[in-house]
Amino acid sequence: MGVVALVPAAGRGERLGHRMPKALVPVGGVPLLARAVRGLFEAGCVRHVVVAAPPSDVEVVNEVTAPLAPAGGAVHVVPGGAERSDSVRLALLHALRELPGTTIVLVHDAARAFTPPGVVKAVVDAVAAGHPAVIPVLPVADTVKQVDAGGVVVATPDRSALRVVQTPQGFDARVLLRAHEAGGHATDDAGLVERLGVPVATVPGHPDALKITTPFDLAVAEALLVGGQA
Ligand SMILES: Nc1ccn([C@@H]2O[C@H](COP(=O)(O)OP(=O)(O)OP(=O)(O)O)[C@@H](O)[C@H]2O)c(=O)n1
Ligand SMILES: C[C@](O)(CO)[C@H](O)COP(=O)(O)O
């Protein structure tokens, strides 16, 4: 089973508002990207990771991630693109060109630095069991409203049928390639796969797999470390 993980890490982190790219921002002294990559390897089923780095930071990203690879594995770093989907596409093409035998591809945000290895394993197991696309999800805790352009409520969707989506998202490599070859952008890779009409299965996500987006999220991440939870 050839499992390769792609880690889009080329975002600027505008909402975090740090002076360095978000992937390199440290929590407890360790960059978010290094934590995310370490979690992937700790799952025990990933040997190769392809990181899409900010184009001006390829070298530093290489220095940060190269030592994390297990024996027989490696971290490959490629320059990312303008949007997340572009970064994933560039990493995917690199993986399929340089790592023949890749059958399962995970796509994991650098910003989800505290994702438990058990979530990674559950996604891989579900793809290996025959699901072409698998995403980790959580139930929605709050009541959700749909609003119009003016912010006026137009509907209250049934939240029992809604899920919050995390990463890593796992795919049969051929399906993910087809989805990216079809082009376009989506906020997650499952969104591209859905457009092919391919079913996307779900497995339970984990609250620790939060996406570190804002300064508040970074404070939550620091608190998880202090509390010994992550
Ligand atoms: N052109 C881009 C944009 C985003 N990402 C990555 O996609 C993941 C999810 O994106 P998000 O957390 O929203 O990060 P940013 O785009 O950096 O955040 P912001 O919108 O606040 O700038 C991150 O690991 C980010 O580095 C990427 O690889 N290439
Ligand atoms: C892929 C993702 O993490 C799933 O929740 C998310 O869609 C990426 O978020 P972004 O802020 O739109 O880049």
Automatic annotation (TrEMBL):
This is 2-C-methyl-D-erythritol 4-phosphate cytidylyltransferase. It is an enzyme of class 2 (transferase). InterPro entries: IspD, IspD/TarI, IspD/TarI_cytidylyltransf_bact, ISPD_synthase_CS, Nucleotide-diphossugar_trans. Catalyzes the formation of 4-diphosphocytidyl-2-C-methyl-D-erythritol from CTP and 2-C-methyl-D-erythritol 4-phosphate (MEP). Its EC number is 2.7.7.60. The keyword Transmembrane does not apply. It catalyses: 2-C-methyl-D-erythritol 4-phosphate + CTP + H(+) = 4-CDP-2-C-methyl-D-erythritol + diphosphate. It comes from Saccharothrix australiensis. One of its GO terms (biological process) is isopentenyl diphosphate biosynthetic process, methylerythritol 4-phosphate pathway. Keywords: Isoprene biosynthesis, Nucleotidyltransferase, Transferase. Pathway: Isoprenoid biosynthesis; isopentenyl diphosphate biosynthesis via DXP pathway; isopentenyl diphosphate from 1-deoxy-D-xylulose 5-phosphate: step 2/6. The record marks 15, 22 as: Transition state stabilizer. The gene is ispD. One of its GO terms (molecular function) is 2-C-methyl-D-erythritol 4-phosphate cytidylyltransferase activity. Gene3D superfamilies: Spore Coat Polysaccharide Biosynthesis Protein SpsA, Chain A (3.90.550.10). Belongs to the IspD/TarI cytidylyltransferase family. IspD subfamily. The record marks 159, 211 as: Positions MEP for the nucleophilic attack.
